[in-house]
């Protein structure tokens, strides 16, 4: 791994410990709240008795659902997730009560004294069982265990089956995965003198949090202010659960009229927080003898758990990308999000793409083997290219389709053509089996039809020329602030040292949506550019008014006359603006280009642009122990325009590491809906010692659909690591592994061969 010089505006604060996270904040007279979690997955609450807990010295209050003054339930799509359970327990992670005390230790010690009387109910934990006719209904108000259903119907599936010379059918299964962020959920809430309830918390979506807090308290949005503060990792996991934690702390602060902090332990976080959706994927694919895919029939069942969260959006992306980055003329794709009594599933880095890519990129290699074709050639025959039409009937003609470019760059870098000849395929005489594999994909940019997609930025130039910059993008630790500063610096032609990123709050800037879907740089950066364009006009206006001229232009830090002469530099232009009461202040907005979607057919221009990616891996497997050693990882991504290359590379390395953990080790087991792990002593995430050499190749084809010319990298970085590893494992062992995670399966296979 080689890094270029990086710009990181918050680096010194973080490495010196000056950066303050939510749990670092302490206020006078502060109380501490602790949640009481359900230990059963399905039940009716008959009574909650807090008498004994309230007798304990230092215990201030115990709150239940009856103490909530506003709405009890929360949801981004369906309002079905309770802040505190009112009557019906639906998962072994539901919060039944909150205990508030003078210290956190007192609150924790008093938890066992809260007595809960329950009547357990039948439960369902398998999504396939859940959709059967006589299964227990998880959400009685909804009336069905099918949370959502999406489909694609393209061409004639029956005709495609008749045309096929080869038909392959295969089932794949992916695992439930913990986000594993460094910082567990934390919130500190307090009532200000002006009556506004202020929220400091570890979250990815301040505006969603504000909506939920206001709804819980039954107050106006203007009476809640959520502050944007540094966050210790999210990966999609600091949305719904984080909002719930903030709402609970806000409730306690509102009722006690004192500051309240609610900080989760790792055990609390793992028990309650939503996970990556486990998928069951059934594929049937037909091809001609020349390698051309003629049809795909897809059925996907996603375990959404007890609450809806963003399951309809996650599964929608899976639907759009259900046939991978390939031209398929005949498609029948059916995707279900299903309620169960498991811990609910929600947003997770990749958002429905890693699961389908794991299946498709193995399926095409299985087909190539059956047809006695080179897998790369089969991919080239079928991959999307310039002016291709996707399975949703979107024509790829408004940006550079670079799939072959990214694939070839990876294959060249890793020397795939020569190394693939050295694969072991489980030969017993070889001690360390060698394998190499790769995968390709495309990913729709930003939210698409998942939601309204817009953002805003404020540029406020001070009289001395220094700049205050603010956007609707949240800093998750990925370097979003730094990217915004660099974009503003380039657009205004001024040193980045002049620009200070001001942490926004929900009271200062409009709702820019959650910082998810790799949309931060696209949406926030484009808003910054649009704000900078207004600033340039104002700087020109100040100069024009001073010299009684017109048609000035601003570029590279100076104002030019119509004749091309420099009239004023940046600082002089700022001075003249203030002199003439022309404030160099701008509010810029960027809305995503139009998209379209027809839910009845699964047709439409699902995304305004696409990201193209390829990853390859080399590994070895010991033929006695089954130990897997990653030797090399190479990735290429077309990200549009690279704003901060070093941080971009870092995101790719981090994504590959997370993707490798997903491929090999990570699984969050449940028995009867109850978590079987509660910390990282039993939940294995990749260590630094597990990581090989990694290479990131940045492909830049500037995207014409956004002013920033960027696309994104947060999610593409991990989406195809798992299928690349699966393909490498097949070439090492001679066995195809179609379920995640794979490391234990490999060990079992190797040891089984020895018997």
Could you give me the name of the CATH homologous superfamily of the largest domain? Aldehyde oxidase/xanthine dehydrogenase, molybdopterin binding domain
**What's the CATH topology label of the largest domain?**
Aldehyde Oxidoreductase, domain 4
- Biggest sheet strand line-up: 3-7-1-14-11-12-13
Task: State the end-to-end CA separation.
Answer: 41 Å
Question: Could you name the CATH class of the largest domain?
Answer: Alpha Beta
Low-confidence stretches: none
Give the fraction of residues assigned to helices: 25-40%
Q: Work out the strand percent.
A: 15-25%
> Count of DSSP E strands?
30
The radius of gyration computed from the alpha-carbon positions, rounded to a whole number of angstroms, is: 27 Å
Number of helices: 20
**If you average the pLDDT, what whole number results?**
94
For the record, the count of structural domains works out to: 3
User: Which CATH-level-2 architecture of the largest domain?
Assistant: 2-Layer Sandwich
Question: What structural class should be given to the helix and strand makeup?
Answer: alpha+beta
Largest sheet: 7 strands, mixed
Overall 3D form = globular
